[in-house]
């Protein structure tokens, strides 16, 4: 019997319009009525993930920033966090600047960027339609080095984004000189940098201790490289039909795509019976 489902957002629970289908909402609601915990487990910043928890009416903890932080959904209390070393942040910044790649930084509740583009531009546009309490705070920074020094001990994650796959691969390879960080991807056009050992699986393990739920009673659903650690930890790892090949290979089961209610179909099969 499964008592917890950890669900990734982009490419998994969300369709191509970044919305949750009615069938997904219904299946999740029915699972919560059976006392199954639904944990959003996303690369997004906490406030960006919490919007969807609100839409679903779920109150379970949220794993954000690829596992760098776990917070209570009810009051935002931090259950666990793993912040980046400032020296590492400055080395990463130098590599990004030398290669002229777009990036943003998650620090606490804030998304820091040097220019509005890709994800920061999307959040900026989306914020306009949201009440202030639900917005993702965006800080357009003119001197990122100074800002990172000021934020000593508050940085959770860097994200680099580019439509140039060769540039992404080159910069990712250059980051291997920073031995105290891990690099993973959550989409075909990005990679993410966190402290070494930080991942969704490790965060799920920490949450399992807090909630006293063994891994064999957990399901993890995702679509990309950064979801593999939670597949490895949970009793049942489920990849979406649209998942990257590496995620499909690591999963125990493959469901339908994110535009075909893949999350709902998985919950119906393994929890609702």
Automatic annotation (TrEMBL):
Which InterPro entries does the UniProt entry name for this protein? Cof, HAD-like_sf, HAD-SF_hydro_IIB, HAD_sf
Looking up Pfam families in the UniProt record yields: Hydrolase_3 (PF08282)
GO MF annotation: an example: magnesium ion binding
Q: A Gene Ontology CC term for this entry? A: cytosol
Q: Which SUPFAM superfamilies match?
A: HAD-like
Q: Which domain of life is it from?
A: Bacteria
NCBIfam families (alphabetical): Cof-subfamily, HAD-SF-IIB
Name of this protein = Cof-like hydrolase
